[in-house]
Amino acid sequence: MARGFKIVSQYAQAGLHLPYRATKQAAGYDFEAAEDFTLPSIWKLNFIKVLWQLHRSETASTTDLDAAAKVLKPWLVPTGIKAFMNDGEYLLLANRSSNPLKRNLILPNGIGVIDADYYDNPKNEGAIFVQLINMGIRDVHIKKGERIAQGIFTPYLTVTDEENVTTTRSGGFGSTNK
Ligand SMILES: O=c1ccn([C@H]2C[C@H](O)[C@@H](COP(=O)(O)OP(=O)(O)OP(=O)(O)O)O2)c(=O)[nH]1
Ligand SMILES: [Mg+2]
Q1: What is the ipTM of this complex?
Q2: Mind listing the pLDDT tens digit for each residue in 60-107?
């Protein structure tokens, strides 16, 4: 029975901290940003301009749409951390409760599901990223070492007499092609 965190090789010399529980009975292990990171405000002018054009049923140019999509896409903040755990467990990645309140930062995926087989996967070593969107009107500058999310080791159940699932994981973010 083992579960825990390791620093991925890319950040071996970066002086990162392993996730830690801030209080005696905290459920979540706080993850820190592995590097400085700027989250642009979703309300960038070109995004507004595109919305206005779409609203006035003018066709927004593809470059404007591409620019808006760029601002809209969730930003992957690196943690430099990978998590190992037992069969039947996953790491639930949740937003910090202060992020929306104080910094207008939301997790577009609601929660992150870090699977046990993501650890040391061939594509990215199981490096955990926090997807964040900045709903505020100002860009948010995250400093390396700032706490950006929390991970909770969680058991999960599966259906009874499930046929053996054999697909092995190759990466993350949509990499499991059926
Ligand atoms: O916020 C997140 C969510 C996921 N992951 C990583 C860990 C997880 O094991 C993997 C796959 O996540 P998930 O299964 O939620 O996404 P998917 O779209 O189903 O991708 P996949 O096809 O890789 O399973 O991506 C993160 O690093 N951060
Ligand atoms: Mg998946």
Answers
A1: 0.95
A2: 778 877 877 777 777 899 999 999 999 999 999 999 999 999 999 999
Mutate to test the pocket of ligand 1, among 113, 124, 175 (most ligand atoms within 8 A of CB): 113
Distance from Cα 2 to the centre of ligand 1, integer Å: 21
Please give the domain boundaries of the chain with CATH numbers for all domains: 2-39+73-153 (2.70.40.10)
In residues, how long is the chain?
178
**pTM of the entire structure?**
0.90
Q: 90-115 burial, b for 16+ CB within 10 Å, e for fewer? A: bbbbbbbeebeeebbbbbeeeebebb
Q: Measured from the CA of 90, which atom of ligand 1 is nearest?
A: 9
Q: At what angle do helices 45-55 and 62-72 cross, to 10 degrees?
A: 120
Which of 123, 173, 175, 176 to mutate to test ligand 1, by most ligand atoms within 8 A of the CB atom? 173
SS3 84: strand
User: Tens of pLDDT along 141-177?
Assistant: 999 999 999 999 999 999 998 888 888 888 888 888 7
Helix (H) or strand (E) holding 108: none
pLDDT at 162: 87
Distance (Å) from CA 96 to ligand 2 centroid: 22
